[in-house]
UniProtKB/TrEMBL annotation:
InterPro entries: Fe-transptr_FeoA-like (IPR007167), FeoA (IPR052713), FeoA_core_dom (IPR038157), Transcriptional_repressor_C (IPR008988)
Descriptive protein name: Ferrous iron transport protein
An example Gene Ontology molecular-function term: transition metal ion binding
Pfam families: FeoA
UniProt entry tagged with the keyword Iron: yes
Ranges of residues in domain Ferrous iron transporter FeoA-like: 18-92
Tree of life domain: Bacteria
Signal peptide as annotated in the record: none
């Protein structure tokens, strides 16, 4: 896991971020950032609803484990392959994120 200071949180806060693919079904986290050097890929994920600040929960793994279905916010349901989920970073610290 990565520990970062400041960034989108208050300057004095420390929080752990980790790739989305590390969440297990039923855990909820907050999207922090999309780490892609390809602007079009990053924009595509944002257009699908993977916006920083949104709550995300994996709800179902396919029989072979890839892709995984996620709920973003309250209503967006989408399946994402692991290679894409590795580029989306989240934090499980809901209290810190909601204080922004």
């Amino acid at each position: 896991m990565i520990v970062e200071k400041g960034d989108n949180m208050s300057e004095n806060s420390e929080y752990q971020i980790f790739p989305l693919n590390k969440l297990v079904p039923g855990e909820t986290a907050i999207i922090v950032k999309i780490d892609s050097e390809i602007k079009e890929h990053k924009n595509h994920l944002i257009n699908l609803g993977f916006m920083p600040g949104e709550k995300i929960t994996p709800v179902f793994k396919s029989p072979l484990g890839d892709p995984i279905a996620y709920i973003i916010g309250r209503s967006i349901r989408i399946a994402l392959r692991e290679r894409e989920a590795k580029k989306i970073f989240v934090t499980g610290d809901l209290y810190e994120t909601e204080m922004v």
